[in-house]
Each structure stands twice: as structure tokens, then as C-alpha cells.
Design a protein that fits this description.
By secondary structure, the protein is α/β, with parallel strands linked by helices. The protein contains 17 helices and 29 strands. The N and C termini lie far apart (about 65 Å). It binds oxalic acid (OXD) and manganese (II) ion (MN). The site of manganese (II) ion (MN) has 3 residues, from loops.
Length: about 575
Amino acid sequence: MSKSEAVERWVDEIAAKTKPDEVVWCDGSEGEKARLTEEAVRRGDLIPLAQEKLPGCYLHRSHPSDVARTEHLTFICTTTKDEAGPNNNWMAPGEARDKVGRLFEGSMRGRTLYVVPFVMGPIGSRFSQVGIEITDSIYVVLNMRIMTRMGNVAWAELGGGADFTRCLHSLGDLSPDRRYILHFPQDNEIWSIGSGYGGNALLGKKCLALRIASYLGWKQGWMAEHMLILGLQSPDGEIHYITGAFPSACGKTNLAMLVPPPSLAAKGWKVWTVGDDIAWLRIGDDGRLWAVNPEAGFFGVAPGTGTKTNPNAMATITRNTIFTNVALKPDGTVWWEGHDAPPAPGMLDWQGKPWNPSGADKAAHPNSRFTAPASQCPVISPEWENPSGVPISAMLFGARRQRVVPLVYQAFDWQHGTFLGATLSSETTAASTGKVGVMRRDPMAMLPFCGYNMANYWGHWLDMGRRAAKPPQIFRVNWFRTDESGKFLWPGFGENLRVLKWVLDRCRGGGEAEETAIGHVPTLRAIDRDGLDLSDDVMRQLLRVDRAEWIEAAHRQREYFETFGNRLPRGIRQEHEALASRVAGK
Ligand code: OXD
Ligand code: MN
């Protein structure tokens, strides 16, 4: 199957505008990978690591002003501002095409234009979507090769048609003053200029698989969510699939690859990874929600990743991995804060400067990353490329909250669960530029990724619940509650399995819970603490629901919901009113 006329026309049009020296159509072959890698090394875009220790691994250093997603430069260009909603930056499509179109004029002069056809989702699946990224960054091509199913396979999937997302990317001059990440959901199109980093530049990920896909899902009756997918195997050998929405850099990759603590592993508990960042969900013939991971790789946060926190990630990134903005050791291996190995003398920091271990600067950038094939994960689920997806039993909403929110609780039903997602808020992390540790509302962990008005998105959630005969159970989790001295109360990481176990018990009609004003909270002994040294007193603090704190929380929620005016769905308003009166004891 060859490319369609629509593709050829679009590429010609972009080439005429951006004026590259050369146009290269990528086929996804091994030979092409070798050629591009060699070229990237020659140009200094990739630094080869010690190949005997880290075969196929390279280091990339981005421009120091281009190290994270830039949400303030990310726009949704719908016909009206109201369609984009208060949750998005908006630019009128005409103005956007005019203003940013000018920046693309001649932007690829002296460079190569790569045409990167790719598929998001398993090949031959009704879930999958084709995208074509035009880019002048060889680093982007090599990352897209890991993160998506890239190359000739996409032409077959496209079947000679024109139904693909047009993804146009140019490094431009890398100036934040001329950096824009624009989405035209109504035209199935993305334009990104001025950044070569992560979600700003690998357009299959946040731009297509979340912002554009969330809009397509709304129009077509499916969902695109910022969720990991894992398979939880219980001692009886059954596997139940769970999705989890957490804001960026809140441990989705760790949870997706969780290693059970010894006491539970001995009983036969096991976790399988299906995806660590994005889930596309559709209603199956059986009335359940089924999910696929649209990606083919992990673009994970390096700092904090070590053998203790995530041994499966550490095993995944020992080969064929691109590291971005980590530190380089003199032996040609890599390091970051939280790595198992001690920092080596003579290390270079993420900018390539000698690193001073007693200085204040970090060796690796806090948002430094690894890009690695999902197939290399030791616990990748045998179902991860199943074109039908996996059936979902439970959905988690999690965020970073030091106070107020218990370790886990269960929604009364789908509508209440949608409300729990809509009221998610979290302390910010380094995944986006801006201040770290500031509380912000992040509904469904989709604030930076929802391609349309969030109120309509909640309406779509409610609608999906009405259409699905057997929707998943919904839970709120919080691994990050602290004591008065700021110390985490819950050990997290592998021990989170104890919470998943209770979640699964609840899905199967068991698991002890107390009905509280906010939902079903586990009773003191309901979470399995066998082999874990955690006192009743700490468990009580973890599960505590403080009425005064919740009265205040409900008050804040009202102010937030008011920003959506009369677009706010009735179901969300009802849930808010019901919560406010329950916590007030009415
Ligand atoms: C990511 C993010 O890279 O959420 O996954 O920022
Ligand atoms: Mn993410």
C-alpha cells in the first residue's frame, strides 16, 4: 500500500512553504534507523553512550530554554473561544494560521524535512488512528520511531485515504518568543514550532493522542484519557485491568510497572503493564469499557527512577533508549537524582558542564526523560497489542495532595466518580514549565490535555456512563498525604498494590468499607498490612475524612465550577450539591 494523493499534496504544500533542502520519507526500517542515528551523532544531536553497557542507547541535550511542555504557549484553535473553554488558551483559527503560518515560512531552510507516518494504537484495531508528522528534527524522528508504530505500516493502515492527523513541526529558531503549539481539532491538525522537546514536539503523544483524540472521542463516542493501564493478577490467576489518571510526574510509570511487595508476591499477586500514560477507551459489545494504549514506548521521567522505585523501568532502559537531559558519567553511562549508583566524580550535568556535587544545581534536569520501547518492559502484558483492547474493571483518579484527601475511597456510582475526576487537584511538578508545588485544579489529570471545553468533556463522561451497561468502578487515591512534619504517611511504590487489592475486592463485591460523606472509605483493617509495618494510628490518619476540611473543599469547588457558567452539566452540579449537603451534615 502506498501513500495517498492527499498525503503527497499536503507534503508538497508544506515543503513549498518551509523550503527544506531535502525531503525524506521515513519507512520505519532498521536500515533507516541506523542511517538516521549515524547522522544524528555526526550532527551532535545524539551522543553515543557506552555501547557495551547500554547497547543502542544515546544521550540528547536539549536547548536549556526548551526542557518541558510549555502550557502557556499551547493553544486550542476552535472557531469560538467558548468551544475551547476556560481550561484552554484559545486563538482564532484564522489569526493562528496567519500569525504562526508566517513563522513556518522558510523555517526548514538548510534542513531536511522528514515525513513521519505513524499509527497510534495497535495495528488493525478499530481504536487506532493514523498521523503524519512533518518535522525538521532528526531527534523527533528517532523518538517517534520508539513512541509510535512508525513507517510503511501507517500507509497500510491509512488504506490510501485521507483520514489522518496532519502534524506539522519545525524547530524554528527555538526561541520561546516564537514558540507555539497549536491544535485545530475541527480540522484534525496540529502545528508546533519553536520547541524540540517531548510533548511539544513528539506530536503523536499529548497533541494527537490526548488533545485531538479527546475531541474526536467526544464527536465519535469514545474517550481519550491521561491514564495508565495495568493488569492486576490475583492469586487465583484472574487478571483485572485498571486505568489510572494522575497528573504528569505523579508516578504513573511506577504504578504501571509495580513490583508487588514480597508478602503479596509470595501469594501470587502480579502486575502487568499495558500502558503508562494514555488510554483510549470504547464501549464493548458486553457493555464494559475496553482500553488500548495508543503508544508503543515510554517517555518517562528519569529522576526518582531507580531499582528500588521501579526495577522494571530500570530493566526497560538498558538498551535502545534515548536519554534526554540526564547527566553523563565519564564511563559513558548516565545518571540522575534517585539513580541507584552513586554520582561519579567527573560527571557532566544535563547541559554538558562539569557537575559540582556540593553545589546547589541538579546533575539531571528535573524533567529529564528516557524514551524506550514498551516491548522491552519485563512485565509488559501479553495483551498490550491486542486490537480489541482490555476490559476495564476500575478507574483511579490520583493526585498529589498533602492534606484532606484519604489514601483511597470509592465513588458511589459513575456520575459520582465523574465528579471525583472533575474535582481532582494536585500540587504541580516539573513536567511543565512554571512553579513546582503549587496547588492547581487538574480535572481527570486532563487540564493540559483536553482539546475542548472541559464542561462538555464532563458531559461526555456522564454520557459514556449512561451508554455503558457495565462501566468500571471509580476510585480516588492519594499516595501523598503527609503528617504535621511534612513526612509521607504512606510508603507508596510497590506497597500501592495493597490499595489496588482493596480496589479489586470492591469490584468483586467484597472489601470492607464505611460509607462516608465523600464516598466509601476502607475500614481500619480493610487494607492488607501483612508484611508492612504501618500502625493503626497512621492508617487512621491516612483514611481520615475531616468534615471542616471538606466543607472548605466543597466551597472552593463551587467557585471553580462557576467559571464554566451554564455549560456545567447537571450531573456535576447535582453531585456538588449532594456533597456540600452531606459534609454539612444536612
Ligand atoms: C508526560 C506528561 O510527558 O504528562 O507524560 O508531561
Ligand atoms: Mn503524561
